[in-house]
Amino acid sequence: MIREKNMKVINATLRKKTGLFTISYHNGVIDAIEPQAGLLILEGADVIDAKQQLLMSPLVDPHIHLDAVLTAGEPEWNMSGTLFEGIERWAQRKSSITFEDTKQRAKQTIDMLVAHGIQHVRTHVDITDPQLTGLQAMFEVKNEVKDVVNLQIVAFPQEGIESFKNGRELLEKALQMGADVVGGIPHFEYTRDKGVSSVHYLMDLAEKYNVLVDVHCDEIDDPNSRFLEVLADEALVRNMGERVTASHTTAMGSYDNAYCYKLFRLLKRSKINFISCPTESIHLQGRFDSYPKRRGLTRVAEIDRAGMNICFAQDSIRDPWYPVGNGNILRILDAGLHICHMLGYEDLQHCLDLISDNSAKTMCLGDQYGIEVGKPASFILFNAKNDYEVVANQAKAVLSVRHGNIIMQRQEDQVQLLSVNTPAQRDVATTRLAIGV
Ligand code: FE2
């Protein structure tokens, strides 16, 4: 449904620009972005006053498992906290999933994502299931939520391509059914050789079906897990790098610097994208260490500073791998910046890239994404003015507009400081809390 009325947002602050702007849109498309000489005072049903706060492209979650969400503890909790026990617990739960159960949990979670300003989501769906129940359910979900979220579906072989019975056939069938992206998990295959052949096979399928690639790659603390070089080399040789993503690559946090120096040369040439899931990785990795205990993340800051494309994602919400989460990807950004030593001045100036522009590039969203004339009138408003304030204030998206339609509005928190002495002081303190200063 496209809104036909002429609408405008006034007094908006835009990322990486100075001054205030008016953004006009019609039929769900932006038709003008005009700088203002000063503050505008306008009212009416066709005007949204941004009150000098930040207007930006919708947030993106480029890596989540919507088929597994909200299953933590069913039938058993992951007591070791390891990735491998998570896969075992999920295999137990998978035997009881149904079409409706998957749809209900996925849609409940999408509501949580939309409530936090997310409009683009890439979900992995486990296809190591002879019935492909979760995949079929996710196709229906994708269609039913299209007015609020653009959903990309990854055919993800959770239990392996070469190490699971009929793994190759199931992966190809999932692509024939319409999955948008082909996945893999080479570090989970039984042998190094099977891991390598799984990467060759999934890249062959990507070319055959003209789909994107997103591989769970080296999600382990093992410094000898080196499937990333195989994936990057395949992407380079086939000239597919911008359509290929390496998720996790946590082993890179354990590689020695000499190998990593050589590896970066290949990674840069390949042009592949990277996704880090910082809360998930710091929870699952480092589990076999005593002290010092590794953080278990890839080299996020180094990849970013080398000019390669990297973004953050949630991965899980209350499932066998990660028992908490609420859909708020700003919580992931906050944690990621801390864990990756990225709270320096320069990083804080553009840190929202890690959950917006960089993620959109990873998902190959192209003309679907960005605040520009001719692009969809899809944007969010924050209760903060810039990237730094969003993180420092733990701000939240207060409005989400998609193709011209308002799909989410949030009332700001009101807090009263009862210990403040006079009513006048109390009013000032309450107002300042409401705007997050
Ligand atoms: Fe994942």
Report what the structure shows.
By secondary structure, the chain is α/β, with parallel strands linked by helices. Helix content is 34%, strand content 20%. The strands form two sheets. Strands 1, 2, 3, 4, 5, 14, 15 and 16 form an eight-stranded mixed beta sheet that branches. Strands 6-7-8-9-10-11-12-13 form an eight-stranded parallel beta sheet. The radius of gyration is 22 Å and the shape is globular. The chain starts with 6 loop residues before the first strand and ends with a helix. Residues 63, 65, 124, 216, 315 line the site of fe (ii) ion.
Helix-strand layout with pairing:
Layout: E1 7-14, E2 21-26, E3 29-35, E4 47-49, E5 54-56, E6 59-64, H1 83-94, H2 99-114, E7 118-126, H3 133-144, E8 150-156, H4 167-177, E9 181-184, H5 192-209, E10 212-217, H6 227-237, E11 244-248, H7 257-270, E12 273-276, H8 278-284, H9 300-305, E13 309-312, H10 329-339, H11 345-349, H12 357-362, E14 379-382, H13 387-392, E15 397-402, E16 405-409, H14 423-434
Parallel strand pairs: 1-4, 1-5, 6-7, 7-8, 8-9, 9-10, 10-11, 11-12, 12-13
Antiparallel strand pairs: 1-2, 2-3, 5-14, 14-15, 15-16
Which structural class do the helices and strands define? Answer: alpha/beta
What are the bound molecules? Answer: fe (ii) ion
Count all strands and give the number: 16
Order of helices and strands: EEEEEEHHEHEHEHEHEHEHHEHHHEHEEH
Radius of gyration over C-alpha positions, nearest whole angstrom: 22 Å
Shape type = globular
Please tell me the overall pLDDT. 95
Distance between the termini: 38 Å
Detail the poorly predicted runs.
none
Helix percent reads 25-40%
Beta-strand percentage range: 15-25%
Major β-sheet annotation: 8 strands, mixed
| Tally of alpha and pi helices | 14
